[in-house]
Fold this sequence. Notes:
Layout: H1 2-27, E1 37-43, E2 47-57, E3 63-74, E4 78-85, E5 92-94, E6 101-105, E7 119-126, E8 130-134, E9 140-141, E10 147-148, E11 154-155, E12 171-172, E13 177-180, E14 183-187, E15 190-193, E16 200-201, E17 207-208, E18 226-230, E19 232-234, H2 240-273
Antiparallel strand pairs: 1-4, 2-3, 5-19, 6-18, 7-8, 7-11, 7-15, 9-10, 12-13, 13-14, 16-17
Helix pairs in contact: 1-2
Amino acid sequence: MFRGFHTVASGMIAQQRRTELLTNNMANANTPGYKADQSVIRSFPEMFLSKLGPSNIPTEAPINGKYATGVGAVSTGVYMQETIALMQQGQLQETGLNTDISLIDGLLPEDAETGQTGAIFYRLQHPVEGEAYTRNGSFTLDAEGFLTNPQGLYILDSNGQRIQLQNDDFRVAGDGQIYVNDAAIGQIGVSFASQPETLIKQDNGLFKTADGTNLPSAYDTENVSFSMQQGYIERSNVDSAKTMTEMLTAYRAFEANQKVLQAYDQSMQKAVNEVGRVN
């Protein structure tokens, strides 16, 4: 009985966390460059139950022994093991703003160890933790003319330096080169992650490496190709309809576990108050 309480409670906790994850995805459905989170729910190791029974061994002096009969496996609960960001390309939306620049995936090689496709990101200068990475290309110019992201972090060029412009009268080519009056002044920095699932997702659509090291340049990585489109932003890759369906499924699963928990509670209440009562 008490094992049943634990199993049902673990299912409720897992579905609650999944609902919170899906709610966060829905809240960021209109955030440029946002990558939807996916949950991985796994089961705890199962237990194999057996029962002991008497066994009479036919000998001259009968021996009464014990033997075990298998009953079956029983689950000990579930848990949310991890969350993984879906790196699929989002749709492009035209804005007409020169400071809006979208990354367009081209050829991205798969990792030989995991078989997962790599991902590319803009390079940002983090004020505390070195470099950070994002897919949100909705940039602005600060008071000093530096190209920044919506949170005010500096966009870095391919050499790891800040990008400073006189005004928003500039052109970005498909290869990331920035032109002012037809003169190239720099190239927007882009990094490549061969195992994007190992990146740590932070607030505001930022990513960091687990060990704090910088990702390699996508320009210098073999078999990596991509392009940029000025005047466009990459929309979130959240599928709103699918997310709503998954939220309803998670809610129903939580509700089912809740009813089982109530049934356990009523059984325990009856056992305590009625079983063994002497009239």
